[in-house]
Amino acid sequence: HGGHLEVIVGPMFSGKSEELIRRVTRAVIARQRVAVFKPAIDDRYHATHVASHSGRSVEAHAVRSSEEVRQLLRGETPLLSGEVELPDVVGFDEAQFFDAGLVPLALELAHAGVRVVMAGLDLDFRGEPFGVMPDLLARAESVEKLTAVCVECGAPATRTQRLIAGRPARYDDAVVLVGAQESYEARCRVHHAVTR
Ligand code: ADP
């Protein structure tokens, strides 16, 4: 049967990794061939696994670019040439950190019959669309938007609150701050704050 693109989005702590792990584990149980990739910058828990905040995990390749994913999938021969057997399911975690080449790769894989499952943040800490995610969401056959629990009021949380030394981050702060005293919380629209 045909390939397609599934996208799982939501703020931090909404269970995106858990849901990706759930879908991938079911495929493995059904003896489907599965490959999971994640950006090398995310070394949460284990460099060769996708791990959820609640502790479950699956094996994954940590990669530096979408091109590296292509290389891993094709081995020596060109991707999608018909000479290489592609996995039945290809998963990506933290998809928002991938380069723009992730979109054509996802479409090529889906076109070649692969079930592509992407998990990532739809919004950055400012509440703005995050990287390649809007493009993936628009092109997906299926989209699941997950919510966490707002730490301020208990409402469904759709935003990721970034705190620097305990205070809301500034709009102009770099998305990746090295060595900063930063932390993240799940919050609803009302309690999400960004300092201008
Ligand atoms: P994501 O990949 O979206 O960051 P994970 O799958 O890694 O999410 O983690 C989801 C888990 O995070 C939940 O099952 C729960 O155990 C934990 N968690 C921590 N804080 C919260 C919160 N504010 N709301 C919901 N779950 C939370």
UniProtKB/TrEMBL annotation:
Q: Name one GO molecular function term.
A: zinc ion binding
Catalytic reactions of this protein: thymidine + ATP = dTMP + ADP + H(+)
Q: What is its main location?
A: cytoplasm
Which EC number applies?
Answer: 2.7.1.21
Enzyme class name: transferase
User: Residues in the active site?
Assistant: 94 (proton acceptor)
Could you say which residues bind Zn(2+) here?
Answer: 150, 153, 188, 191
Q: Which Pfam families match?
A: TK
- Cross-referenced InterPro entries: P-loop_NTPase (IPR027417), Thymidine_kinase (IPR001267), Thymidine_kinase_CS (IPR020633)
Q: Which UniProt keywords apply?
A: ATP-binding, Cytoplasm, DNA synthesis, Kinase, Metal-binding, Nucleotide-binding, Transferase, Zinc
User: Where would you find this protein in the cell?
Assistant: Cytoplasm
GO CC annotation, single:
cytosol
Does the record bear Lipid metabolism in its keywords?
no
This protein's assembly is summarised as: Homotetramer.
Q: Which NCBIfam families match?
A: PRK04296.1-1 (NF003296)
Specify the protein name. Thymidine kinase
Q: Which organism is it from?
A: Deinococcus peraridilitoris (strain DSM 19664 / LMG 22246 / CIP 109416 / KR-200)
